[in-house]
Amino acid sequence: MKSKLSKISFIMLACLIISGIMFSCKNKVMKQEDPAIKIANMDTTVKPGDDFFRYANGNWLKNNPVPAEYSIYGTFEELRENNNKQLRQIMEEAAADKNATAGSIKQKIADFYSSGMDSAAIEKTGIKAIQADLDKIDAIKSVPDLVKTIAYLHTLGINQMFYFFSGQDDKNSEKVIAQLYQGGLGLPDRDYYLSKDPRSQEIRTEYVKHLGKTFELSGVQKEQADKDSKIVMDIETKMADVSSTRLDLRDPVKNYNKMDLAGLQKLAPQFDWSTYFSTLGLKATDEINVGQPKFFSGIAKLVTTVPVDQWKTYLKWHLLREASPFLSSAFEKEHFSFYSVVLSGIKEMKPRWKRVLSITSASLGEAVGQLYVEKYFPAEAKKRMLELVTNLKDALKDRIEKLSWMCDATKKEAEAKLAKMNLKVGYPDKWRDYSSLKITKDSYFQNIMAASQFEFQRDLNKIGKPVDRTEWGMTPQTVNAYYSPNMNEIVFPAAILQPPFFFMNADDAVNYGAIGVVIGHEMTHGFDDQGRQFDKDGNLRDWWTPEDATNFEKQTQVLVDQFDNYKMLDSLHVDGKLTLGENIADMGGLTVAYAALQKAMNGKDQNAKIDGFTSDQRFFLAYAQVWRGNTRDKELMRRLKEDVHSPKEARVNGQVYNIPEFYKAFNIKPTDKNYKPENLRPVIW
Ligand SMILES: [Zn+2]
């Protein structure tokens, strides 16, 4: 049902296929007189050398507490709010278009959206929407039935047991193969099942309560519902126990285990893989990457040691979990009370139109994207981006040439990789074909299912075929950007090319400090601790001399230690190893964008001031202002455990004090609170 959504978040969460960068901004069309650097947002009573994050954003932080319907609020959410208004207009215009023919993307968008807004029909249908599938689970009598039902639910996009999807072969990036990946948990991380810390214990207690309430809503008597919730918790805890840690999932070598069907059957013998694949409709099973072998052999054992009746309870739970946001309001509220309130501290549900809009936009991604770019994306933005990327690439090339810790042989490979790095800006050249997807006004739930099955088939059909290099991993209306190590490409959707990231008319310093750092960030992902293990063709291949690899690790360890010591919420701290890739990318982004700005400023007066700031000062201020934002404590706790990105504050204060030019720009003194002696500042890219 939300396979498409799940896939996107999965991609970000797993960070294997794509390294995303979460960003933020304000999407109103920039008027000439609107200053790019918002002086009113700053707190100039704070010294830049003491706390640059608050110097740049202090007043904004004080004046913008997190709204009730959010767990985190900053530039990203401001921009998303504005995007919501634009997308709502697109949906309403599509609905009003009397010339929209049946089967056109306008008809599909309009009907999808209006079926979601028809809350009376959704209330009336209630649990009946999933009754046939609940019955199907009830009819399971044996392990072979169980295997078939797991596969059937996967074709609907209901995530349970594990993930199945298609992806490039890490060691032969021209080819798309089947991928198996650990999953099947209702909580967002294995540690929540296993850790003894008070927050994990609290989450476990609340989760079991939520399970019980959801079973009761589905018609199970309280006593049985309580038993059922313990069964689910018990199975998931056993699955968590054989799951890899988030840190291990960041290691591309550990997660590459290609085998054929016989190899998989030997690894996980209690599960009939041939039946599983044939139920999916998959023919090419000669090459399968098994992300986490220990997990798959572990769950195969569970298939025979846990009674079939208990598996039925587990599958019903996951069907209910995935369906709840789209069923009657009792289910939706119960789902919200755990996944948004308990886990993230959100106070209030978003209004219905925003919820339906985001599902429509995710389910019909490139159809909505097509209308979005027609209406809101100026063609000149693409030209300006090409120019910026070219300058950033030149600057990174120069820096690689001058690196003192890397020898010539490794430099040659690094430069070849950079030269071959592909760029995508705005939207795909070839739009996805939705003609076989049927969407009607009649049922929101059926529409979600149809879109989900369509997406599953589209993904499945790629297996065994050469890779399609025109494909995009994000929709144009997404405020984000990514690097794909297998494609060796950087991608910038239309929605991020707006202030405060991208200014069509502002001075260079601001554009290089904002979107320039984003570009540099994504480029550097090609050379972070994960990305550096892939070569210019997107293959997992070690192109480093042993000395250079050691030097790289020595420098990056400094960054690991710095972030490990970054305290948030009293005793909690950033996980330096988990966030290393993103921190390297932020640091590379700042360094390379700054170098590119110097080239662009060549011959111009560097000390000329705009709004009282020199160009170097505006560069760093633009960067820091992109990261303004407030976060609820529960959300911060969740992110410190789950997110590969550092918190917003750390992305500013954890980075700028490593950059020598920042010290000069703001005249930072050894007596300032965050001053770092030169020998403690790492030099990576
Ligand atoms: Zn990133």
Write a structural description.
There is one protein chain. The chain has 685 residues and is of the alpha+beta class. The protein is 54% helix and 8% strand. β8 (480-484) and β9 (489-493) form a beta hairpin. α18 runs antiparallel to α19 (408-420), α18 (379-402) crosses α21 (508-525) and α21 (508-525) crosses α24 (615-626). Mean pLDDT is 93; it is low at 1-33. Bound molecules: zinc ion (ZN). Zinc ion (ZN) binds at residues 19-21, 521, 525, 582, 585.
Blueprint of the fold:
Elements: H1 3-14, E1 19-22, H2 52-63, E2 72-74, H3 75-96, H4 105-117, H5 119-125, H6 128-138, H7 143-156, E3 162-169, E4 172-182, H8 191-194, H9 198-217, H10 222-241, E5 258-259, H11 261-267, H12 273-280, E6 288-290, H13 293-305, H14 308-323, H15 329-344, H16 352-363, H17 365-376, H18 379-402, H19 408-420, E7 422-426, H20 444-460, E8 480-484, E9 489-493, H21 508-525, H22 546-564, E10 567-568, E11 572-573, H23 580-600, H24 615-626, E12 629-631, H25 633-642, H26 648-656, H27 660-665
This protein binds zinc ion (ZN).
Zinc ion (ZN) is lined by residues 19-21, 521, 525, 582, 585.
Let me know the number of strands: 12
Uncertain stretches: 1-33
* Class derived from helix and strand content: alpha+beta
Number of helices: 27
**Mean pLDDT across all amino acids:** 93
- The residue fraction in helices comes out at 40-55%
Measured between the Cα atoms of the first and last residue, the distance is 42 Å
Q: Tell me about the biggest sheet? A: 4 strands, mixed
The amount of beta strand, in percent, is 5-15%
How large is the radius of gyration?
Answer: 25 Å
The small molecules bound here are: zinc ion
Shape, principal axes of CA atoms: globular
Placed side by side, the strands forming the largest sheet appear as 1-8-9-7
